[in-house]
């Protein structure tokens, strides 16, 4: 009696039943639309402003340091004021996480110190403002 039925947690027979729903596998997670539809925070310049609409809330995100996934977030019931956070990434609600990603159809996971916050599913992500490029000084020949 060693067959495991993943959906019921029962043991029967002698073989292991590996028929786990694809959404619960790493490969299934990687194929979800939210893993391809979204924004990589590391690709954004400091000062970029995003609006993230989730199923239950709207968040305004100001990128502080894309490479370090640092941002200011305001919105929803958890962030009534702008709050410094680390954008951990996108999750389907389990332990798999697409690091530094805000994915449509997935939940957004943020952290404040040791506290982790997971939003409801992201419905849309919009870039509202991109900071202007740094002025380049051109040396003139004498």
Explain how this protein is built.
This protein is mainly β and 142 residues long. It folds into two domains: 1-25, no CATH class; 33-129, no CATH class. 4% of the residues lie in helices and 48% in strands. The protein is built from one helix and eleven strands. The chain has one helix at residues 26-30, and strands spanning 3-5, 10-12, 38-40, 49-54, 58-65, 70-75, 79-91, 98-99, 101-103, 107-112, 115-129. Strands 4-5-6-7-10-11 form a six-stranded antiparallel beta barrel. A two-stranded antiparallel sheet has the order 1-2. A two-stranded antiparallel ribbon has the order 3-9.
Output the keywords.
single chain; mainly beta; 6-stranded antiparallel barrel; two-stranded antiparallel sheet; 1 helix; disordered N terminus
Q: Helices and strands in order, then pairings?
A:
Layout: E1 3-5, E2 10-12, H1 26-30, E3 38-40, E4 49-54, E5 58-65, E6 70-75, E7 79-91, E8 98-99, E9 101-103, E10 107-112, E11 115-129
Antiparallel strand pairs: 1-2, 3-9, 4-5, 4-11, 5-6, 6-7, 7-8, 7-10, 10-11
